[in-house]
Amino acid sequence: MDLAKLFSTLSLAGEDIPPRSTTRPAGKPKFVKFLPGDNGEGMPETFFEDPRTFNPKPGPHGQIQTWGIFPVCALPTNPSESVTLTFDGIQMMYRTVSLWHTNSQYDNRGGKPWPEKQFMDVLKDRKREQLSKLDLAGLDKKDIVIKIRLKVRNLHCYTFTDLRDGAVFGPEVGYDYLPDDKYMLAHLFSEVGDTFGHLYDYGDKWYHEIEIEKIFLLEESYGRVQILDGKGMCPGENMRGSYRYQDFLKAYDTDSYTEQVKKRREILDCPNYKGFGKPPSLFDIDAFDIDQANERLVAALSSPNSVRAGMKAFTMPINPSAQDSRIGKLKKGQSIQREWDYESHGYWQETTSSTKDKRSQSACAACGKPGGQDLKTCSGCRAILYCSAEHQKVHWKDVHKKQCSRKYLEK
Ligand SMILES: [Zn+2]
Ligand SMILES: [Zn+2]
């Protein structure tokens, strides 16, 4: 098989595909084991080290990302620079594809795992051990002021990164994430000034840095989740990531009126603005409406957790039989929401659940206070929880009256 040709066929923009490199790191790996036929060609040199003593490496700008193995996603010091990629993803793809055609049949699900996974498993065990011994000193109960920017949920993959060692938390899809539903944000920092990373969407790459600005004493903490301030409208979902969007905004300031309207239209055409419902002339890129932001936060808090296996996706069916591929695998209480977009010849589909979230993963629908066993269930729908009778009353009047129904009742 002509791999170079394969990759150029797969490449999206016709960018130059580097040739396959036949070099491999010198020497023998200190820990990982290869199957016959594999000599580590195309594997990053880090995997030749010993994961039991491995020290994560900071990227070019001092932050530790992706377990300190691939210092990818290094943030440029000057926003006009592009993101520095210091590992060679193409060589790793050559490696994966060329090994499909040899006797080296690695199998991460029950067989002999890939050397990369052998290495990661040790790093993950080390981190798990460290996390299990961690004294959070009430950090999970204290109110924290953070600087953050978040976007629509459950449409793309996401991760959280502990920038102290590059440990990555996320939905357990790859072999290098710790499951994020088993840990709390409090596991990612210890004091004011600490930052951790949030990456949303592996295609476009929206980077967020979340900085701890203030930690309240336990006695002063009351657990409410609230937006204190913000700036500007959310970028459009498909606008190719943080850095391109920054350039987009910079140009916007000096654009002609016609150009600005064109740009506003581009944002409003994105999926997360589907419900905006106003013409581009009424869209102000710089506006921030704190009340509206908090309203959306409350709506998110009182909605059930996303169903991981049913993330929101857009489908353009080629033939009608393609439409029902996922029906039949639903769990109790789950249903498929589908919304046709006739203009785009396809539909949005998401699996949602009407069953109550696990107590360990739920919060007061009114204020967002995580309460575990202390939360009381709404007796109408039994789907949402409250921290107090007072919050239930307020939430009923403002929001829940229209949602609550016995039809959601779980039997
Ligand atoms: Zn509450
Ligand atoms: Zn209810």
Structural class: alpha+beta
Q: How do the strands of the widest beta sheet line up side by side?
A: 1-6-5-2-3-4
| Uncertain spans | 83-87
Number of domains: 3
**What is the tally of beta strands?**
11
Order of helices and strands: HHHEEEEEEHHHEEEEEH
Q: Major sheet: size, sense and barrel closure?
A: 6 strands, mixed
Integer-rounded radius of gyration: 24 Å
Give the overall shape, derived from the CA principal axes. Answer: globular
Mean pLDDT: 79
> Alpha-carbon distance between the termini?
56 Å
Portion in strands: 5-15%
Bound molecules: zinc ion
Share of helix, binned: 10-25%
- Enumerate how many helices there are, as a single number: 7
List keywords for this structure.
binds zinc ion; 7 helices; Structural Genomics Hypothetical 15.5 Kd Protein In mrcA-pckA Intergenic Region, Chain A; 21% helix; alpha+beta; 13% strand; single chain; 3 domains
Structure in words:
This protein has 411 residues and is of the alpha+beta class. It folds into three domains: 1-133, no CATH class; 144-220, MM3350-like (Structural Genomics Hypothetical 15.5 Kd Protein In mrcA-pckA Intergenic Region, Chain A, Roll), CATH 3.10.290; 311-408, no CATH class. The protein is built from seven helices and eleven strands. The model is unreliable at 83-87 (pLDDT under 50). Residues 364, 366-367, 369, 386-388, 391 line the site of one zinc ion. Residues 364-404 form the MYND-type domain. GO terms for molecular function: zinc ion binding. InterPro entries: MM3350-like_sf, Plasmid_pRiA4b_Orf3-like, Znf_MYND. This is MM3350-like domain-containing protein.
